[in-house]
Amino acid sequence: AQSVTQLGSHVSVSEGALVLLRCNYSSSVPPYLFWYVQYPNQGLQLLLKYTSAATLVKGINGFEAEFKKSETSFHLTKPSAHMSDAAEYFCAVTLTGTASKLTFGTGTRLQVTL
Amino acid sequence: DAGITQSPRHKVTETGTPVTLRCHQTENHRYMYWYRQDPGHGLRLIHYSYGVKDTDKGEVSDGYSVSRSKTEDFLLTLESATSSQTSVYFCAISDKTGRFYEQYFGPGTRLTVT
Question: Does A75 have pLDDT greater than 90?
């Protein structure tokens, strides 16, 4: 079985500061990992995905994440936060080759202050 | 945006009444999913479908049933709604792109059971 843990349900950063949202996974086989973003009253939008091709993955809106097998982590970063980044972010995992059962973390709400 | 619509978008119903939520896609994707989103839990899979008339349970399927008679429609039914089923419900679709399946989400249905 697979699972993800997101550390910190709320993260607050100043505009222009580094964004770091943490995600650790547990999986008995090589996983596929995803970060989704949810803006208020909207559905989820895929930010980026790890599919074993490259460990550093670049996504939309300047976000990137690095897959570290030794640390079982897939943390999301952005060098400089913008007010428009305020949203909830979800890490998710699925097993290689399966078409179902994305397992989500509990989410991290990012607040960006002036 | 992936062609996914959900109806209704908002619904208030009374305990004990049946409720059906509809997900409609125009992408001809094989797989469809129903999730519920609750604070502190992220998104949890209720049921999913891997083809017309082919469905399976997710991790929180008790009290829910689904049907898929056409590729484009996936219905979620609460036979007798309870207050614990107050939630935001998301539909998702996916199909194989290369070696993996990427899920696209609908806008959600906010259900309140009084």
Answer: yes
